[in-house]
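Might you be able to review the protein record set out just below?
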Amino acid sequence: MLTRVERVLALKNIELFHDIPGEVLADIAALLEEETFEKGQYIVNEGDLGKELYMIVKGEVEVVAGGNVVAVMKEGAGFGEMALIDSQPRSADIIAKNDVLVLKMESDDFLEILKQRDEVALGVIRVLTGRIRELNAKLAEKSGKKEK
């Protein structure tokens, strides 16, 4: 079980929360639940309604969409924010590649933080923009074209 200080330090390493002051992270840390998953265990199922944001503290996960591994995420990554923002079903399975420790935030808490803290909203925008750029690069590579 992580202490509150350990949770704050873990949050500081999560890409969504890089630019958030420590005192704000302490408030956010109080809202989080820890959850562990064993290798091969499904954390999120494609098509399910998303109600949580997950942040990886330890371990790695595979992102599987349509039966294909499309990414591997590790410590410092977060997932689940898309389903919380657009209320659409989960777009991929997330499967523990090894033993994984995550911090989990419920959707109501996440949405309230987005409303109150511009820095968190900007962090989410940066992460989603980065993912779009990665996908664009992969699509360009598959089609034999380079992104301009």
